[in-house]
Design a protein that fits this description.
heterodimer; A: 347 residues; mainly beta; 5-stranded antiparallel sheet; 4-stranded antiparallel sheet; 23 strands; 2% helix; elongated; B: 364 residues; 7-stranded mixed sheet
Chain lengths: 347, 364
């Protein structure tokens, strides 16, 4: 516990646990019992004190204690003020130790496929530490065409961060993807086929701890024609492992799928229709994936079962394409369950 | 329920303290909020919070009507940031809502450095106060698997309805729970089909951004608005297990707009709806001095029998629509808003970057 004393008779101090100084409280001792004393706490920034922070002052055995309603911020300066009747206020300042956090890094961008459909729906950005949330992010990430010109307003401006704020899903505005939508007709699509683009992340994208990335990050990619086909499991190729092994079931798709949905939107059922525990590894630019069972395969029928809402890179699902016209007849549903039987090992 | 009669057969529904009990089985303590996407009010001063994985109903006990008027607070964001002990840039306002039982303003915000969420309140003529969440009576309603993103919530006909989707997918669902809200009890999820006037297609995946309760000829509806801005009504009676709910699109307010808030009010015997939106392509085709715009339309729009393929388009049909729909110019710059009463809205307006001003604005 760190205690910083300010005066002798009437003393004011900050008290903070060593392991988390953001939970500091302010203590006043030597305060006359009958006095109408009170403590306020203020952010001290550019030599100016902010308004009194939320919190409550409670009497203690030794005096008064002010408990802020929220945690203090790392690296910030605060000023506590003890207000005493008929006396000058007593103040004490405290700097919350800054975290020696490194600059954040953008460690992975999905999709990793060599070519992305011109009607690509989303990017996934993974950072190595929790990032600063807020709508500013939509002005800090850009798409540049091959001439270096930035594409105007490419994003749907609604934040989609993971709970730990390390993963950001950036949606390209659906109104500029769907054919016939007025936004696309007025502004054009965000991406054109067979072009070179760069996803550009500004240097001022900031971690939750307040550190900027510090350098521009560029992620070049190529586009292919728009994809208006459903990702049907019947078009996948299965390489079936031998019974008695834990070799992976390898699935290859003619097109890449959304990497985040692959593990959660398909399952393997055994002959009793019970799901198997499998580990999923995604390869080849999200175009093939390996499902490794926790236990060896049995030489009995199994089923690869696919959820209707699994998405390819353009948001098409096995059920319908992304900009489906509901007035048209429903397409043939196609199989959602692919049977396979691991063969016995040949000796 | 207080139902505001509006001549003819059209009514807009406001909540009051005459409803059945909102919260049934509850807990007292911290509701463990992981994030706040939206806040709104049910009856009896019950605050509804859309969290990432749950809807939390909190009994605020705030049911005594307050007197007085709100005064303008220049730099409300900076004031709030200071009260939280951070710089202005380190706080982001998420949503605001007026408690209709008391008239008190509630604002949800995120402290950016530690991703903590706070709710503050403001009474007419008062100061910003912290609404402590560490010991409140509450009921937490978990969202079903695959639904983890709340866009908006309304309380209608003793029922909580939420527009919801999935964080990792572009999807649209309606989540419904009937009163009383019991801690830990789940709800039902429905799919909806919506005709988007602007591009002449039926949609199933576009999420509804904002919602509003509405009643017509004794039949209750939810009015929703989507990006690019179709306004759609859904009959409540259609929201039942197994049903695909088909909406009736009544107007399209303009492409490139993402609705943020929507409420109804009565003026001169006429029911009106005000909705504000972020204009997506303000840079290229501005409606005014700010990308934050608002539209007013009256109940003739909601009551029209020209729906879906025959639905009106604000830009193309301006002459035909006359005074029934307009761009609400006094609301330029409004980022968040709610209805104070039939004459006044309270709003956060952008005039100086992200340091928003709290203002009251006469309703058009």
């Amino acid at each position: 516990m760190t205690t910083l004393a300010a005066a002798a008779a009437v003393a004011l101090s900050f008290a903070a646990p060593d392991d988390d100084p953001t939970t500091a409280v302010v203590r006043a001792t030597g305060v006359p019992e009958s006095s109408d004393a009170g403590i306020t706490l203020h952010l001290l920034h550019n030599n100016r004190t902010g308004p009194a922070m939320f919190g409550k002052t409670i009497p203690t055995d030794t005096g008064l204690e002010f408990r802020p309603a929220v945690k203090l911020s790392r690296g910030a300066n605060y000023r506590a003020v003890l207000h005493l009747p008929n006396a000058d206020p007593i103040t004490i300042d405290y700097k919350v130790p800054a975290l020696d956090a490194p600059a954040p890094k953008l460690v992975k961008v999905f999709p990793t496929a060599k070519k992305l459909p011109a009607n690509l729906l989303k990017f996934h950005l993974y950072f190595d530490q929790p990032m600063r949330e807020g709508r500013a992010i939509f002005d800090q990430i850009h798409i540049e065409d091959h001439t270096g010109k930035r594409v105007h307003a490419p994003w749907r401006r609604q934040e989609r961060w993971s709970d730990d704020a390390r993963h950001l899903i950036l949606l390209i505005h659906p109104g500029r993807i769907k054919r016939g939508v007025n936004l696309r007709e007025e502004l054009g699509p965000v991406l054109l086929p067979d072009q070179k683009y760069t996803l550009l992340v500004d240097a001022n994208v900031t971690s939750a701890a307040g550190k900027p990335i510090g350098q521009e990050t560029r992620y070049p990619f190529l586009t292919s024609p728009e994809d208006h086909e459903r990702p049907l499991p019947e078009n996948w190729t299965l390489s079936i492992p031998a019974a008695g092994t834990r070799d992976p079931l390898r699935i290859e798709s003619p097109e890449p799928l959304d990497h985040l949905l692959i593990p959660t939107h398909m399952a393997i059922l055994d002959s009793n229709e019970s799901p198997l525990a499998v580990d999923t590894k995604i390869e080849d630019g999200e175009q093939s994936w390996l499902l490794t069972p926790a236990k060896p395969w049995s030489a009995s029928p199994h089923y690869l079962v696919v959820d209707d809402t699994l998405e390819d890179l353009a948001g098409n699902t096995p059920q319908r394409i992304f900009d489906n016209d509901l007035t048209l007849p429903e397409p043939a549903p196609g199989a959602r369950s692919i049977p396979f039987t691991p063969p016995p090992i040949k000796h | 329920m207080k139902i505001l009669a509006l001549g003819l057969a059209l009514t807009l529904v406001y909540t009051s303290a005459l409803h059945a009990t909102v919260i049934g089985k509850s807990e007292t303590g911290s509701p463990n909020i992981s994030q706040i996407n939206v806040i709104t009010f049910a009856d009896e001063g019950v605050l509804l919070i859309g969290d990432g994985g749950q809807v939390i109903a909190i009994n605020t006990g705030d049911i005594t009507p307050l007197e007085g008027n709100f005064s303008e607070t220049k730099g409300f964001t900076a004031e709030l940031a200071g009260r939280l002990g951070v710089k202005t840039a380190d706080v982001e306002i998420i949503d605001l809502a007026v408690n209709p039982a008391s008239g008190r303003l509630y604002v949800a915000a995120r402290k950016q450095d530690d991703k903590s969420y706070v709710i503050v309140t403001l009474a007419p003529g008062g100061e910003i106060e912290h609404f402590a969440l560490d010991n409140v009576e509450h009921a937490a309603i978990p969202l079903p698997e695959g639904v983890n993103r709340i866009k908006d919530i309304v309380w209608i006909d003793n029922r909580l309805l939420a527009s919801a989707g999935a964080q990792e997918k572009f999807a649209s669902k309606l989540f419904s729970v009937s009163a009383p809200l019991n801690h830990g009890a789940g709800g039902d999820v429905y799919s909806a089909e919506t005709y988007h006037i602007s591009h002449g297609k039926w949609e199933t995946k576009a999420p509804m951004s904002v919602m509003l309760p509405y009643e017509e000829n004794g039949k209750q509806y939810i009015v929703g608005a989507f990006s690019c801005t179709p306004v759609v009504k859904y009959p409540i009676e259609a929201i039942e297990p197994g049903a695909v709910i088909k909406g009736l699109s009544v107007i399209e307010l303009g492409s490139g707009n993402r609705p943020v808030d929507m409420f109804s009010y009565e003026k001169d015997g006429q029911a009106n709806v005000l909705t504000n939106a972020l204009r997506f392509h303000h840079d290229k085709r501005p409606y005014g001095p700010s990308p934050h715009v608002a539209f007013r339309f009256d109940d003739t729009i909601l009551g029209t029998d020209k729906v879906n393929e025959q639905g009106a388009h604000r830009m193309k049909d301006a002459e035909k629509l006359g005074d029934s729909v307009e761009l609400a110019e006094p609301f330029f710059g409004v980022v968040q808003m709610d209805r104070l009463n039939d004459t006044t809205a309270i709003a956060l307006r952008e005039t100086n970057g992200n340091n928003l001003d709290l203002v009251t604005i006469a309703l058009p």
